[in-house]
């Protein structure tokens, strides 16, 4: 069996801004919010399983264009949501409803789509995606576990693959639908196959220092799960660090994470060209500029492995 990870999107929530004249907004390259698909194939090359991680705007278009999900190969077996923010959930209506309608017209009569998320995220979905949830079956894991806690593995029926969620802090998402704080609604994911380990480390805020200096046994166990990954896909919204906690990490934070986690290949996601402010490094950068600047720093500081910015459609073989 072969397992492929395809990038569906890698952009932050304000991908382009109306009226902005920066290089990023002028770049004609199609953008989509951060997402990935884990596609499993049998020995005949047939797609037999598809797990989708996050479903923001533009993601459905990426899934529909994926050559491994065309025609009779099209399928959606699980949706895993890192958290409830719209840039990770706004495409649910497009993909879930259309997939359900097609399966019904085709006489497939598929069961409800399994959706994994934290309970706080489920509450937001019930408020804002109540119709889509009638076509889904929610699987939730508690939201009292603090950042740096390993959660139970997803109950997927996929031999040789284990997906373990890990609690992460993302402070403007860490509350329930009633606004109660703290309520940990977010998770990263560790995907293990027989030969590779892949870490999807988004969305996180800049307070997740446990990734560098774990303070207890639970955090140390989480770091051990995240460390030595073949592929680390990490949230990198800012270029420069800020003196206060920011909603997403900077490239400075990412360097510290990589130095401790020691991934073989690091990929920057959730990129933007606006949060650092006009006139500062990071302003207006398109993804190619992000990669060039990051690689120069990586080489100069002799950080582990390599660093890249992927493109929509890039596919990595996990087994």
Task: Explain what the structure shows.
With 319 residues, this protein is an alpha/beta fold. The chain has a single domain, classed as Ribonuclease Z/Hydroxyacylglutathione hydrolase-like (Metallo-beta-lactamase, Chain A). The chain has nine helices and 13 strands. The protein has helices at residues 23-26, 59-65, 86-89, 92-105, 119-128, 130-133, 217-226, 251-261, 287-301, and strands at residues 2-9, 35-41, 47-53, 78-80, 113-117, 136-140, 162-167, 187-192, 197-201, 231-235, 265-269, 306-308, 315-317. It has a seven-stranded mixed beta sheet. A six-stranded mixed beta sheet has the order 7-8-9-10-11-12. The radius of gyration is 19 Å and the shape is globular. The protein starts with a strand and ends with a strand. The model has no long low-confidence stretch (mean pLDDT 95).
Roughly how many Å is the radius of gyration? 19 Å
Quantity of strands, as a count: 13
Strand numbers in spatial order across the main sheet = 6-5-4-3-2-1-13
Count of DSSP-assigned helices: 9
The CATH top-level class label = Alpha Beta
CATH homologous superfamily placement: Ribonuclease Z/Hydroxyacylglutathione hydrolase-like
Distance between the termini: 7 Å
CATH architecture assignment name: 4-Layer Sandwich
Number of domain units: 1
Shape: globular
Q: What class do helices, strands and sheet pairing give?
A: alpha/beta
Listing every helix as H and every strand as E from the N terminus to the C terminus, the arrangement reads EHEEHEHHEHHEEEEHEHEHEE
Biggest sheet descriptor? 7 strands, mixed
CATH topology: Metallo-beta-lactamase, Chain A
Helical content, roughly? 10-25%
Q: Residue-averaged pLDDT, rounded?
A: 95
Low-pLDDT stretches are none
Strand content: 15-25%
């Amino acid at each position: 069996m072969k397992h492929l990870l395809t990038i569906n999107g890698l952009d932050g929530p304000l991908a382009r801004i109306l009226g902005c004249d920066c290089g990023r907004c002028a770049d004609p390259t199609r953008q989509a919010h951060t997402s990935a698909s884990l596609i499993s194939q049998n020995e005949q090359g047939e797609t037999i399983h598809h797990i989708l991680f996050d479903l923001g705007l533009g993601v459905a278009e990426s899934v529909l264009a994926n050559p491994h999900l065309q025609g009779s190969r099209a399928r959606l077996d699980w949706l895993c949501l890192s958290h409830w923010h719209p840039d990770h959930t706004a495409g649910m209506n497009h993909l879930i409803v259309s997939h359900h309608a097609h399966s019904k017209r085709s006489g497939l009569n598929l069961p409800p789509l399994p959706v994994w998320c934290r309970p706080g995220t489920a509450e937001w979905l019930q408020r804002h995606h109540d119709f889509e949830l009638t076509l889904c079956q929610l699987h939730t894991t508690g939201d009292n576990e603090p950042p740096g806690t390993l959660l139970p593995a997803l109950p997927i029926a996929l031999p040789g693959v284990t997906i373990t969620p890990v609690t992460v802090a993302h402070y403007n998402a860490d509350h329930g639908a009633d606004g109660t704080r703290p309520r940990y609604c977010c998770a990263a994911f560790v995907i293990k196959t027989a030969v590779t380990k892949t870490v999807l480390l988004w969305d996180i805020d800049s307070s997740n220092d446990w990734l560098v200096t774990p303070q207890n046994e639970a955090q140390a166990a989480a770091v051990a799960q995240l460390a030595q990954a073949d592929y680390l896909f990490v949230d990198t919204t800012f270029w420069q660090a800020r003196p206060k906690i920011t909603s997403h990490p900077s490239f400075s934070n990412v360097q510290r994470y990589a130095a401790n986690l020691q991934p073989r290949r690091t990929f920057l996601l959730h990129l933007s060209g606006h949060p650092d402010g006009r006139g500062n490094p990071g302003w207006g950068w398109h993804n190619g500029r992000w990669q060039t600047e990051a690689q120069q720093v990586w080489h100069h500081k002799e950080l582990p492995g390599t660093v890249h910015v992927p493109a929509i459609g890039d596919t990595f073989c996990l087994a």
